[in-house]
Structures are given as C-alpha cells and as structure tokens.
Amino acid sequence: SLPAEKADPVFSTLVASFAQIRNHRELFDAGRSGIKLLLSEVPRGQSTAKDNEPQERIVDLLAGAATSTDTEARDQVAQEMLRILEAQRIVSLDTLFQLTDQLDAVSRGEKPNNALMARLTGRISEIQLPRNALTTTERTSVAFGYWVDKHIEDQRRLNLRSAVEKAGTDPEKLKDLRGSLAPFLRDTLLAFNYAYYAPPGSQVLYTNPVFVRSHDFIGAQGSNHLWRSTEVLGSGWPSSAGGRLVGSLSTLPYALAEAEQNFLIPSQTQALIWTDLVPQMILSAKIPRWWNVTPSQVHWVGLHIRYGRELLAESTFDADLRAQLLESLSVLASPVRTQAIGRLLEQGNAKEAMDRVTPAELLLLARDRASKEPADEASPLGASIRQLAQESPKEINYDVISRAFGSPKPTLANSYEPELMNLRTFPTLMGYSSRIMAESWESNTLYWAALADELAIRPGELNVRIPEWTGKLVEHIFASHLEDWPAVLKSLRLVGEDVRAQSRASIATEQKAAL
C-alpha cells in the first residue's frame, strides 16, 4: 500500500488529472497516468514484475508483495486473482498499453502490429451475453441498464484493425483511437477490485463472464444510484448468473459476498438461510489481510484460547474462580447461557461448558484473568501471555490483536477496519435477522488463529486458509432458528476438527514416505 505520507498527495494528483477531461482519449490517458503514478509511489517489495508489466505488478501488489515474504502464499493468492480475471475475459493492462504505444507508432509512420490487434480481437470475441435462455420477465429483471448494455455492445463491436486502416496516416485520428480502449481500461481496473475482494469459491465470478462488465454505476432509468452503496440486483433467476451490481464501489466487498451466498450449497438440509450472517462471515474472511501478522501474534491468540479453556476446567474445582469467570462471561453471554454454563461447571461437566463458550468469550476470560492473576499463582499459559506482551509491547497488545483478528463492522462502526468490540451477540429484531446481529459475532477469526497456532501454520498462509475454512463453515451450519448460535459454533469446531484430521493424515503420509 501507499506510505501514509504519500497517500494524500497521490490522491490529489489522481483526481486532478480527471478534472479537465473532454473526450474518451483524455479519459484513457488520465487513467494510464494514474496507474503509472501509483506504481511509481508504491514500494516494489517482493514483486518480480518488470516496469513494462503493469498487470503483473498490480496483481503482485494486491497479493501482498509489498509487505510479505511468504512467496508460496502470495503465489496462491495471485493465481486465484488471475483465474478470476481470465474468467471475466478481462483485457490485461499490458495489452492495452502496448496497443496505445502501437497507435502512437503508427501515427509516426510505422507499420501496425496486426498480431497485437488480433490479440484484442480474440479477447473481444469471447465476450458473450448470457441472455439467450431468459424469458421476457427474466430479461426485464436482468437487463434494466441501458448504459451497461451499450457499454458491452460497444466493446463487442470494436474492430481496432479496421479503425486503424480507416484512420490512415492521420495522427490525430490515430491518437483518438485510444479513446475506444477506455471502456476496456475501466473494466480492467474494476476487475482488480472484484478479484481482490472475491468471496471464497467466487462462483458468481466464474459463472457469469460479464459480471464485472455489467457493473452499473448509474442504475435503472428514473432512479439514481450514483455514489450510493453497492447493491445486488437482477439475481434469483436460474439464467441470470448472479445478476449484477449497481451503485458505487463503497460497499463492493459486502455486495460480492451477498451475491456469492446464493451459490453456496449446504452440506446438510438447512431450515433457513442466514442472509445477513453469511455475507458478514465472508466479509470477515476477505477484508482483513494477514501478511504483516507475526507468528508471535498468532501464538498469543492461541495462548488466550487455551488459557480460557484451562480456566473453565479449573473452575469446576474452585468456586471463587468460577464466580469470577461467570462475572466476566456475563459481559458477552446472555444471562440464560451464563447460568447454564455455571450449572455445568458446578456439576463438574467442563467439556460441555466449554462447548457453550465462544472463542471471543474465551479470549475475554483469559484477558481478564491474566491481568489479575497473582504472579505466585500464575499458570504456565498465563505466564506466557504476560511474558510475550512484556517482550514485545508494541507488537503484542490487545489493540494490535483487535486490528489483526477482529472483524469489519460497516454498520456498527461505519468502517471496514477490522476490530474487536467485545459485544454481546445481538438478538433478532421482531423475529428477523439484521446486519447488527451478524456483526456482533466476532469469534471466527480468533478460532482460525488459534487453529493456525496449534497446527504451526504460517501467518501469511492465513490469507489462503481462512477464506477456504470460512466457505466450509457456512456450508456446515445446521441451524433451526435465527438465534441458534450454537449451530454456528458447532460448525466452526466441526471444520476445525476436519482441518486437524487432514493435518494428521498429511503428517502420517510424510512420515511413512520418509521411512
């Protein structure tokens, strides 16, 4: 990302370049200049792309090349983004910029590069509108945007080679042809955003090859979607391939997650679909990036989760400790659940009590106890928590952990910055779910971090694993009603057990092969 001190100057320069645009050629030139400016100011990091390969450079940067040294994880993320760009039939920046350079060369009297123009023509021929099987009602629902349809049709009709031949040797006409490439540049830049925030599985992007091109910034005739939040429209028809997105890009990550949930297939028969919870869970797996997270931070979270479980087990023998834990637990858990956990602990049933406590609550229990526990009574886990924090106070503290392993809360906090707010799980509103209810669930990433610590998974690899695990989590939820949070917790732990089993099998296979 851009250094903080350069963000405002670079943004001002970018915006200023678009202020005096009068035609499509100037629009394309402003876009290209903006890309060059960004790439010149962003640290190269681990990117191996050359200066004349802007497509590869941007993909590398989106995959964490500026900050991460985990080459294996970065390559997996980059390959996934490239597959999405290919599925959307996107024309690469390299091709677009080479074509504009070629047009400039032709204006100076050089021969046109027909092979390069044929590459663009071949890509254009792959753009197909998935509408042949739609009924009149379906077509009305899906194809409501005049400008979107015109945008796609103009691209399909472009014959750059013929246009160059018609322009002849007129330099101005040849330069003006750059404007015909502006729609392709718009789609390529838009596709980078879609690929970066693509939900786990990304079936909505693989199924509909014009999903990116169909993004409608204007909206239906008679309505104004300019600068409004991103919405999913035209979905619900089998042939609509997920519909399209309308509005600005301000809430693109949530809209993509909302569109993707229609492609998720539950592993069991579900009585309901959590239309607010599922997009929020996907959001929590895609907005945070863990390229800068250290193994010590992951280990610190793992220590808290294990320490919380240890405290619950110990409280079955210690009434005073049990009372303290229940007091801390009551901050996040409902009174009914707190009382039920208290009865189980009093009966000595620690395992069932632990199954009713969420990872976010375990973190809170460990945090409260670690700060109050006398040094002479400290458990090894509590001592390790304090020792790590003392050795690296800037790297390991609760504010840093909140930003690294929290969840975005666009409704509660009006921000996509991840954070842990230590909220009690919000109830339904008149029997309906809500985004506030979904955002109050903060346990997923904490559980994944503890799992990664247990299995010695590299922090950078979380950028690949957490979206994958979250997709499985959503598909395994078997809830009977909207406030059936134990079903979410059960699914979370079920996925964790599957991951542990796969890890054990992999280790056994490696050991057998080594013999």
Outline type: elongated
- Structural class label: mainly alpha
Largest sheet: 2 strands, antiparallel
Strand content: under 5%
Query: In which order are the strands of the major sheet placed?
Result: 1-2
Helix tally equals: 25
Distance between the termini: 46 Å
Elements, N to C (H/E): HHHHHHHHHHHHEEHHHHHHHHHEEHHHH
The chain-level mean pLDDT equals: 88
Low-pLDDT parts are none
Share of helix, binned? 55-70%
Taking all Cα atoms into account, the compactness measure Rg is: 27 Å
Total strand segments: 4
Total domain units: 2
Q: What is shown here, in short?
A:
It contains 25 helices and four strands. It has 515 residues and is mainly α.
Could you explain how this protein is built, in words?
The chain has 515 residues and is mainly alpha-helical. It has two domains: 93-263, no CATH class; 295-511, no CATH class. It contains 25 helices and four strands. It has helices spanning 4-17, 24-41, 54-62, 71-87, 93-107, 114-125, 136-142, 146-157, 160-167, 171-176, 182-196, 203-207, 252-260, 277-286, 295-315, 319-329, 335-346, 350-355, 359-372, 380-391, 398-405, 435-439, 444-454, 462-476, 485-514, and strands at 231-233, 244-246, 407-409, 415-419. It is elongated, with a radius of gyration of 27 Å.
What is this structure's SSE topology?
Elements: H1 4-17, H2 24-41, H3 54-62, H4 71-87, H5 93-107, H6 114-125, H7 136-142, H8 146-157, H9 160-167, H10 171-176, H11 182-196, H12 203-207, E1 231-233, E2 244-246, H13 252-260, H14 277-286, H15 295-315, H16 319-329, H17 335-346, H18 350-355, H19 359-372, H20 380-391, H21 398-405, E3 407-409, E4 415-419, H22 435-439, H23 444-454, H24 462-476, H25 485-514
Antiparallel strand pairs: 1-2, 3-4
Helix pairs in contact: 1-2, 4-11, 5-6, 13-14, 14-24, 15-16, 15-19, 15-20, 15-23, 16-17, 19-20, 23-24, 24-25
